[in-house]
Write a structure and sequence with these properties.
Elements (H helix, E strand, L loop, with lengths): L1 H9 L1 H21 L6 H8 L23 H7 L7 H20 L3 H4 L3 H9 L3 H11 L6 H5 L10 H5 L3 H18 L4 H14 L12 H17 L5 H8 L15 H4 L20
Helix pairs in contact: 3-5, 5-8, 13-14
């Protein structure tokens, strides 16, 4: 194992260059061939404001199902005023920008990985969640995006609890509460529908999803983040959050790009808060 690690370090630059070329070509291909692209993004653009969660009840395979909390729906609602093509290009640019912020010099190289390229193609939010998790060590408020989209993925905030960083934990939870309180008057009925929809999806799996149920994965996620918090291993947070995803699809593995910066620098035991930007990776 040490020999393999030494080889990886020695040939890191050529490896990154090769993967970057593959990633650039693959990205260009999916951008110039839009057929079949944006299947997940379409559900974020096309939901019915009169009944946003209609297609999501008891059906995790529904192609056009919206499942995120009402504040997210309200934030996305204005995009229904533009064409889907405009929304998709904007959404894709946002995902690539988030990937670039997280992975820096390894951005194109990560696009050579099938789950990352698939994520950019279908337009889900796993890369955005990875960015929110990295940012969350300094600005816990970013966990609101995680909790208000793929709820159980929020297990990562237990990092603050296991480290007794109560102020940071309070900031994360307060952000969720404030967003909920501010947006509730605009769509009070959506909240009840969203909760009922989540309940109807408990225990369900998709046709191409990982077969291990959340009931088994979630306790493991808690143990991982607890161990990481006590031993200053920040990379355990995205791993735990990934394991706690409601449903793990092939593109869900793109969330693990958060390991690129977090595995490169240990947590600061004194302050409990890392720098805002990810560690440089060469």
């Amino acid at each position: 194992m040490r020999g393999l690690a030494a080889l990886a370090v020695r040939y890191r630059s050529p490896i990154r260059l090769g993967l970057s070329v593959i990633g650039a070509v693959a990205l260009a291909w999916i951008l110039v061939h839009p057929e079949g692209r944006g299947t997940d993004a379409y559900s974020y653009w096309s939901f019915d404001p009169a009944d946003p969660y209609r297609d999501a009840f008891s059906n995790v395979d529904a192609a056009v199902a919206f499942r995120y909390a009402p504040p997210v729906a309200l934030a996305l609602l204005p995009f229904q005023l533009v064409s889907f093509a405009t929304f998709l290009w904007t959404w894709t640019a946002l995902a690539i920008a988030a990937l670039g912020w997280v992975c820096r010099g390894w951005t194109l190289a990560t696009l050579a990985l099938y789950p990352v390229l698939l994520e950019v193609s279908v337009g889900n939010i796993h890369i955005l969640l990875a960015a929110a998790i990295v940012l969350g060590f300094r600005f816990p408020e970013s966990w609101a995006l995680v909790i208000l989209t793929k709820v159980t993925t929020g297990v990562g905030i237990c990092w603050f609890a296991f480290r007794a960083e109560w102020r940071l934990l309070a900031r994360a939870l307060a952000a969720v509460a404030v967003v909920a309180a501010v947006t509730y008057p605009f769509a009070p009925g959506w909240w009840a529908d969203w909760i009922r929809m989540l309940q109807s999806n408990v225990g369900l799996s998709g046709s191409t999803s990982v077969a291990v149920p959340l009931a088994l994965r979630f306790p493991v996620a808690v143990v991982i983040v607890a161990w990481g918090a006590r031993t200053d291993r920040r990379w355990t947070v995205p791993v735990a959050s990934f394991l706690a995803l409601p449903t793990i699809w092939p593109q869900s593995f793109a969330m693990l790009v958060a390991l690129v910066p977090l595995a490169a620098r240990p947590a600061k035991a004194a302050a409990g808060v890392p720098n805002l930007t990810p560690a440089p990776v060469d």
